[in-house]
Amino acid sequence: MKNGEPIYLDCNATTPLDSSVVSIINEYLSSEYGNAGSRTHERGNRAKKAVQKARGQVATLVGAEVDEVVFTSGATESNNLSLLGLAEYGREQNRMHIISTQIEHKAILEPLEHLEKQGFRVTLLPVGEDGAISPDVVADALAPDTLLVSVMHVNNETGVIQPIEEIAQLLEGHEAYFHVDAAQSFGKLIKPLMNQRIDLISASAHKIYGPKGVGSLIMRRRDYDLPPLKPLIFGGGQERGIRPGTLPVPLIAGFGEAAVLAKANHEKRAKKCAEQQQAALEAFSCINYQVNGDLDKVVAHTLNISITGVDSEATMLCLKGIAEISNGSACTSASYTPSHVLQAMGYDQDRIESAIRISWSHLQYEIPWDDMAGSIASIQA
Predict the structure, then answer these.
(1) Judgement on whether residues 303 and 221 belong to the same structural domain of the protein
(2) Is the pTM of this model over 0.70?
(3) Is residue 164 helix, strand or coil?
(4) Tens-place pLDDT, residues 135-148
(5) Which neighbouring-strand residues pair with 180?
(6) SS3 assignment, position 358
(7) How many domains does the chain have?
(8) What is the DSSP letter of 242?
(9) Between β-strands 302-307 and 355-359, what pairing exists: parallel, antiparallel or unpaired?
(10) In this predicted model, which residue has the larger pLDDT, 334 or 174?
(11) How far apart are CA 318 and CA 345, in angstroms?
């Protein structure tokens, strides 16, 4: 605990702000408050330059061109824009098939439900007990009329890394667009997102120590043409008309700074997180639990475990005052329902109801793993 506060271990929901990001945001909130769309004075021009600088900083993280970055309110909007924005093109080309997975975030699954009601054929692919999709299953599902393949990079609940590079490779020669929800991997797993066969990438700043309320959609050109997305909202013409609205310059500048820091420090950050993961596993050796997902495929900053014989609510209650954790996605926590991710992995109800998610950051050096393990052991006895 710090200053009597329990330690925050829910970084997959949101990360703390980096101090240098805070400084950048404050600068553009206070003294540099111009509108990036104002072209008649210097303060507006400086705001526009700040946006362009951030656009380049975000683009560099995935090997994209500056003009391939569209700023949005976050990955949820970027996901919706990727899926719903392709619908008109799909109808025009008579390509009405979309492939995704059963473990996607609701920001993918719910737009897909909407498209199904509009006549699209949606294939949701299963995963194994390890929490990962097989590229072969994707290959088997591909059809001549497949418009889009959408696969998340890192699962937000289990931390399992999906084989997006292999999927990109098998899509070579097929016209289907490839979208990756990179909310949990952008700025953390750099090389896979550099793959030029990935057409669309969704990201959120608040997952990489940046501000909430801003994200990006990377739209890579294919043969000089951007993906044929249509806007979901209209008015103003900002972001080439794909996502109109006044740009939140302070948030965008903060996002850019967070991207720079992620590019420079991702390896060092991952190493620190991996050390904490190992420390957690060692401390938890005194309790009975199961890891949900293949540990060899899990990112370094996440553990999803089921405590044998103890439901998740009881575990979170016993850790109150020690650590702040979760039992699933923050976006569905208002009304708890059993995890669709763990259900898709074939786990039984007891295992699902006893699952907790612990996610940390490189900023946390002293995590009370032993205290957490001891507290859990006391209610498991």
Answers:
(1) no
(2) yes
(3) helix
(4) 999 999 999 999 99
(5) 201
(6) strand
(7) 2
(8) T
(9) antiparallel
(10) 174
(11) 27
CATH at 47: 3.40.640.10
Which H/E stretch holds residue 116? helix 106-117
Q: For residue 356, list its beta bridge partners.
A: 305
- How many helices and strands (H and E) does the chain possess? 13, 12
Please work out, in degrees rounded to the nearest 5, the angle formed at the alpha carbon of residue 280 by the alpha carbons of 274 and 284.
150
Q: Please confirm, yes or no, whether 11 is among the known catalytic residues.
A: no
* pLDDT recorded at residue 331: 56
CA distances from 225 to 136, 220, 336 (A): 29, 8, 43
> How far apart are alpha carbons 155 and 185 in whole angstroms?
9
Exposure string for 174-194, b = 16+ CB within 10 A, e = fewer: eebbbbbbbbbbbbbbbebbe
Q: Are 296 and 229 part of one and the same domain?
A: no
Where a domain ends, among 215, 234, 260? 260
What would you report as the CA-atom Rg of the chain, rounded to the nearest whole angstrom?
21
DSSP code per residue over 61-86: HHT--GGGEEEES-HHHHHHHHHHTT
End position of a domain, from candidates 227, 260, 293: 260
Residue 299 DSSP one-character state: -
Domain assignment present for residue 161? The answer is yes
Residue 108 in this model has a pLDDT that exceeds 70: yes
The token duo for 318 is: 């016993």
Give the C-alpha separation, 21 to 261, whole Å: 9
- Distance, in Å, from the CA atom of 180 to the CA atom of 172, rounded to the nearest integer, reads 16
Single-letter amino acid code for the residue at 121 = R
Q: Do 115 and 227 belong together in one domain? A: yes
Does residue 283 lie in a domain region? yes
Tell me the mean pLDDT in the region 207-233.
Answer: 96
Q: In angstroms, rounded to a whole number, what is the distance separating the alpha carbons of residues 302 and 358?
A: 6
- Is residue 324 in some structural domain? yes
Q: For residues 187 and 220, state if they share a domain.
A: yes
* pLDDT more than 70, % of the chain: 97
Spatial distance between the Cα atoms of 214 and 231, rounded to a whole number of angstroms: 17
Range of the domain at 302: 7-17+266-380
Pair (139, 40) in one structural domain:
yes
Q: Are the beta carbons of 79 and 105 closer than 8 angstroms? A: yes
